[in-house]
Write a structure and sequence with these properties.
Structural class: alpha/beta
Strand order of the largest sheet: 3-2-1-4-5-6-7
Strand content: 15-25%
Helix content: 40-55%
Bound molecules: nicotinamide-adenine-dinucleotide
Distance between the termini: 35 Å
Radius of gyration: 17 Å
Largest sheet: 7 strands, parallel
Length: about 250
C-alpha cells in the first residue's frame, strides 16, 4: 500500500517550484491532493494534469492565503469537495530582499503577511476539523534564513523564524489531539525564487554547503512526504533542515 492512501492533502502555493514537487510526490504516495495557487490557474492546472496523468487524484483551488477569509474558504472548499483534510503543507512564500536601510514598510508587511500570517490563517481553519478526526499532519516550509539569519532578508528571516516559533507552540497545543506540527527548513534549492540570484552569490553559497551543491525541489518533497506519513507519528515540533548540511544545530 502507498503510504498516503486515503489521505487528503492541501499544499499552498503549489503551482510551481517546491510546492509543485510536494504536490506531485504526495499524490504519488496515494494522497488526494489540492493544489492551491494565488493567480496562475494555468500552471496549477498543469500540475493537476500531471498528477492525474500519472494515475493520481488532484484538483486546483485558487486563494490568496495571506488573506484570512480566503484561506478559511480554501480549507472549507477542500473539506466540502473531499470530505476530509488530513495533511496541510504551508509552502506559499515570497521574498522581497533589501538591506534594512532600503527596506520599505510595504516590503515588510507583504512578506510577513504572505509567509507568516498565511500559516496562522490556514492552521486556524484546519485545526477544528483535524481535532474532530483526531488526526492531522501540518508541515510548514520555513528556511535556513529563519534559523541563521541572512543579510538583506530581515523581513524574510523574521517571517521564517516566526513560522518556527508558531509551529512549536501549535505542536504543544495539538499533541493530545493526534495532530503533529513540524517544520522543514530548506537551504538553497533551485527554483524560480532562487534563479535570479547573482552568479557570484551562487558560487559563494556553494562554499557554505558541506554537500557542495544546491538541492532539488524533489529532495524537499521526499522529506515532506515522510513527515506527512503515519510513520512520522512520534515526531512533532521539530525543524528538519534540508540544506546539504549548511546549518547544523
Ligand atoms: P516559488 O516562488 O517558485 O513558489 C512559491 C509559490 O508560492 C508560488 O507558486 C507563488 O505563487 C505562491 N504564493 C506566493 N504568495 C502566495 C499567496 N499569498 N497565496 C497563495 N500562493 C502564494 O518559490 P519556491 O522556491 O518554490 O519556494 C517555496 C517555499 O519554500 C517558500 O515558502 C520559500 O520561502 C521556501 N524556501 C525556498 C528556498 C529555495 O531555495 N528555493 C529555500 C528556503 C525556503
Amino acid at each position: 500500500m502507498q503510504s498516503l492512501e486515503g489521505r487528503v492533502a492541501l499544499i499552498t502555493g503549489a503551482s510551481r517550484g517546491i510546492g509543485r514537487a510536494i504536490a506531485v510526490e504526495l499524490a504519488a504516495q496515494g494522497a488526494t491532493v489540492v493544489v492551491n495557487y494565488r493567480s496562475n490557474q494555468d500552471a496549477a492546472s498543469a500540475v493537476v494534469d500531471e498528477i492525474i496523468g500519472a494515475g493520481g487524484k488532484a484538483n486546483a483551488i485558487g486563494a490568496d492565503v495571506s488573506q484570512f477569509e480566503a484561506a478559511g474558504d480554501l480549507v472549507a472548499q477542500t473539506i466540502e469537495q473531499h470530505g476530509q483534510l488530513d495533511i496541510l503543507v504551508n509552502n506559499a512564500g515570497i521574498a522581497r530582499d533589501n538591506l534594512i536601510l532600503r527596506l520599505g514598510e510595504d516590503d515588510w508587511d507583504t512578506v510577513i503577511e504572505t509567509n507568516l500570517k498565511s500559516v496562522f490563517n490556514t492552521c486556524k481553519a484546519v485545526f477544528k476539523p483535524m481535532m474532530r478526526k483526531r488526526y492531522g499532519r501540518i508541515i510548514n516550509i520555513s528556511s535556513v534564513s529563519g534559523i541563521a539569519g541572512n543579510a538583506g532578508q530581515t523581513n524574510y528571516s523574521a517571517s521564517k523564524a516566526g513560522m518556527i516559533g508558531f509551529s512549536r507552540a501549535l505542536a504543544r497545543e495539538a499533541a493530545t489531539r493526534g495532530i503533529t506540527v513540524n517544520v522543514i527548513a530548506p537551504g538553497f534549492i533551485s527554483t524560480d525564487m532562487t534563479e535570479d540570484l547573482t552568479e557570484d552569490l551562487k558560487d559563494l553559497s556553494l562554499a557554505a554547503i558541506p554537500l557542495g551543491r544546491w538541492g532539488d525541489a524533489q529532495e524537499v518533497a521526499y522529506a515532506v512526504a515522510f513527515l506527512a506519513s503515519e510513520r512520522a507519528g512520534y515526531i512533532t515540533g521539530q525543524v528538519l533542515s534540508v540544506d546539504g548540511g549548511m546549518v547544523m544545530a
